[in-house]
Every structure is written in structure tokens, then in C-alpha cells.
Specification:
alpha+beta; three-stranded antiparallel sheet; elongated
């Protein structure tokens, strides 16, 4: 038999005990949906479930992260723009101190092409300068990406680990270039 435990049933469940510091044994006396039998269960049946507490904790964290990441932008967020003038499609936080990193000329072109994609995910940046006018006789000008805004769920971590941010952005821009 295969059954699904709904959030409502879980909310009405009674915790019996923690088992081996890894699982939570619960009892529910509400109706469950049996995925193998279309006949509904009687409401007076009780069923025991063993829940992996670490997996449940991770599930809650991932759901919270996705909710935070997919929050629609507020009016204040829509006022945040970078030099490309793209508006974010999700909630975005302006960084108190923009994060800067040097990038290769080829990456400059890719980040320029993908600015709308990154803005859709709340990553707003400026690029400077372009290498378009560079000639072999002149020393190459360094290209810089200056990240001005990030989704709030990324902002704190990336402020603490700025190298992580440029690694994530580079990985995404190269992945998109290969596709």
C-alpha cells in the first residue's frame, strides 16, 4: 500500500516519540489518500508514520529557500537597476557595498548578452570597460563586473564569501554559452 500524507494530516498528527535520534514516530487519525486504492479510508483509522527528521528539516529549508527566491519584486525592488536597465523578476536587495571582480574579455561579452537572464533571477550588475576597441599593440584593459543587487537569500552569503558569487556567475554564464 502506498499513501500520501497531506500537510493537513501532518498538522493533526500526534508525535509519539523520537526514534534513535534520527526519526520521529507519529500517529495520524485523519483520512489519507491511498494512491493504490481509489476507495477513501475511513476517518477513524489510525496510521503510524516514521519520518526521517533530517530529510524533513532539509525539505522545509529547501521550500523556504524557494519561497524566498521566487518572491515577486516589491515596488522598491523594481526601482533597482544597473547599467543594462533590466528590472528584476524576483525580490532583490541592493548591496550596501557592490561586489567587484575582474573578468576575461570573452566573459564580458557573455555577461553583456546574459544581463536580462541574470536580472530575471535578481542579479543586477554593471560591466566596465568593454574590450571592443582593443588592438594587439595596446595593453588590454581589465574588465570588471560590479554586482549591485542580489536576491536576499544570496546576498548575505555572498557578502561573506565574494569569491563564491563570481564562481556561481561564471559557472552559469559559461553553461549558458555552451547550450
Amino acid at each position: 500500500m502506498s499513501s500520501k500524507l497531506s500537510k493537513a494530516s501532518l498538522g493533526n498528527a500526534k508525535i509519539i516519540s523520537q526514534v534513535d535520534k534520527k526519526f520521529i514516530l507519529i500517529k495520524t487519525d485523519t483520512a489519507l489518500q491511498d494512491t493504490t486504492n481509489p476507495t477513501p479510508r475511513r476517518d477513524d483509522q489510525q496510521i503510524l508514520f516514521l519520518i526521517d527528521q533530517h530529510a524533513a528539516d532539509e525539505r522545509v529549508r529547501v521550500e523556504d529557500l524557494l519561497t524566498d527566491l521566487c518572491t515577486l519584486p516589491s515596488h522598491e525592488t523594481l526601482c533597482i537597476t544597473a547599467s543594462f536597465r533590466h528590472q528584476p523578476a524576483v525580490a532583490t536587495a541592493l548591496l550596501p557595498k557592490p561586489l567587484c571582480s575582474q573578468i576575461k574579455t570573452q566573459e564580458h561579452s557573455m555577461f553583456t548578452a546574459d544581463a536580462q537572464h541574470f536580472a530575471n533571477w535578481g542579479v543586477l550588475y554593471d560591466l566596465s570597460p568593454s574590450q571592443a576597441g582593443h588592438t594587439p599593440l595596446k595593453a588590454p584593459l581589465p574588465c570588471t563586473i560590479t554586482v549591485k543587487a542580489l536576491p536576499p537569500v544570496m546576498a548575505e552569503r555572498c557578502k561573506l564569501e565574494p569569491k563564491l558569487l563570481i564562481e556561481l556567475l561564471r559557472k552559469e554564464v559559461w553553461k549558458r554559452a555552451e547550450d
